[in-house]
Design goal:
The protein has 262 residues and is an alpha/beta fold. The chain has a single domain, classed as Alpha/Beta hydrolase fold, catalytic domain (Rossmann fold), CATH 3.40.50. An eight-stranded mixed sheet has the order 1-2-4-3-5-6-7-8, with helices on both faces. The longest helix is centred in the C-terminal third of the chain and has 19 residues. The model has no long low-confidence stretch (mean pLDDT 91). Helix 5 links the parallel strand 6 and strand 7.
Length: 262
């Protein structure tokens, strides 16, 4: 039975000077932190959280701005909290909110146990899972259409400081941790050069899936796991299923001692 977002509990969480509401599914296995994208915690993001919970994960969804269900468009760019907590224009800086998410990962691991925690970033938060890998418990990062810094800046940047990217690269290679990545082939907000930077930094440890590259799906889109996944008619059903299988296999590989029955 797929849990409903209505079944998620809500609690405040503070790390440093940042406090956010966290929505958490009923405990059901290792922890996965699903970090919403620019419009907010839209219904399609909630639906992805429900799906992850149905796969046997305890899902933590931090509310970074707005209210659940809100589609704020680009308004978050102008919110004081976003301008303070996100380096929207910093080409080689790690956003302060990543430290908050790292502390959340520690608590999630303590609550759920297991080998580690998964971290899925999307769009505005796309590269955050990489920055969170300074925390040893974060073991299954997923990078979905990373879109900061602003595309008007150098498009090869992914919103991560050089030192944090180097730490992530070193850890991935030393511990044999793969980084899973998703983007649409013709996404202007996440152009090819962003993934090339990750390939150069991580080598074979970066495992990209580029939607539309093989002709099954339209190459035009942005939200690989949420809005376009559920709404884009050009997104082929067989490729959707392949992406979901890759995602759950990646999380299972690093977060479980043995496969979960499904």
């Amino acid at each position: 039975m797929t849990p409903s977002f209505a079944d998620f509990d809500c609690f405040p969480f503070t790390a440093g000077e940042i406090t956010k509401k966290i929505y958490r599914s009923p405990q059901n296995g290792p922890a996965v932190i699903l970090i919403h994208e620019l419009p907010g915690m839209i219904p399609e993001c909630q639906r992805r959280g429900e799906w992850l919970a149905a796969q046997g994960f305890t899902v933590y969804m931090p509310l970074l701005f707005g209210q659940p269900g809100d589609n704020l468009g680009v308004k978050p760019f102008f919110l004081p909290c976003v301008r303070r907590e996100f380096h929207l224009w910093g080409a080689d800086k790690t956003s302060p909110i990543v430290g908050f998410l790292t502390e959340l990962a520690k608590v999630a691991h303590e609550e759920c146990g297991g080998p580690g925690v998964g971290a899925i970033g999307m769009c505005l938060t796309g590269g955050f899972g990489l920055g969170m890998m300074v925390e040893p418990s974060v073991r299954a990062p997923v990078v979905c259409q990373p879109s900061i810094p602003n595309p008007l800046l150098p498009v090869s940047q992914i919103g991560l400081s050089p030192s944090d990217l180097e730490k992530t690269s070193t850890r991935c290679k030393k511990e044999n941790i793969d980084v899973l990545g998703f983007r649409f082939e013709k996404d202007p907000l996440c152009p090819r050069k962003r993934f090339e930077k990750l390939e150069n930094a991580l080598g074979k440890r970066f495992v990209p899936h580029v939607i539309g590259q093989d002709g099954r799906s339209s190459p035009k889109g942005h939200s690989t796991l949420t809005l376009d996944f559920y709404q884009n008619e050009g997104f082929a059903e067989d490729e959707k299923r392949e992406i979901e299988q890759k995602l759950v296999d990646h999380l299972d590989r690093y977060l479980r001692d043995e496969p979960a029955p499904r």
